[in-house]
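queue> pop job 88
queue> type: inverse folding (structure -> sequence)
queue> payload:
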């Protein structure tokens, strides 16, 4: 686990770096634009781990809830939990948690997977696939340092070019 600050409470969470079904011929990464912010906030799908779930079960549930499909193949898992604090404005809404600790998975969409953002409780208004080198043209929020570590790990492991 990343350095966790004393006396802080972190919500266990999973996140998915999703590669298109054209992988490995093309290395395109899925990002989605949140619908609950005025500004464009692009991110990976993510969500909390419910009581009694393991991270892989939570991953499959969250994918289905957020992008309408969990028709994926898990390629890899980051070995560490990544921890971050909520920014002050968001912290009050997230009480009793001070931040999140996340397990990142690298997944590939299966060829017949259909992304559907109009889910029961829609979290995203748009999505796109981008090359790894373009990812940080879109992702500029507080998770950028964690995203960089995660992408670098999957690059080092030979999954992302």
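queue> result:
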């Amino acid at each position: 686990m990343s350095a966790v600050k004393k006396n802080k409470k972190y919500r266990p969470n999973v996140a998915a770096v999703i590669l298109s079904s054209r992988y490995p011929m093309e290395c395109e990464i899925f990002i989605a634009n949140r619908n609950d912010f005025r500004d464009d906030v692009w991110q990976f799908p993510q969500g909390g781990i419910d009581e009694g779930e393991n991270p892989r079960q939570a991953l499959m549930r969250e994918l289905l809830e957020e992008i309408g499909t969990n028709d994926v193949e898990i390629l890899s898992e980051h070995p560490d939990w990544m921890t971050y604090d909520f920014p002050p404005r968001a912290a009050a809404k997230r009480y009793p948690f001070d931040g999140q600790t996340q397990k990142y998975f690298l997944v590939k969409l299966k060829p017949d997977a259909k992304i559907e953002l109009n889910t029961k409780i829609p979290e995203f208004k748009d999505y796109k696939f981008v090359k790894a080198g373009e990812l940080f043209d879109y992702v500029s929020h507080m998770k950028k340092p964690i995203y960089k570590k995660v992408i670098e790990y999957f690059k080092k492991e030979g999954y992302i070019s």
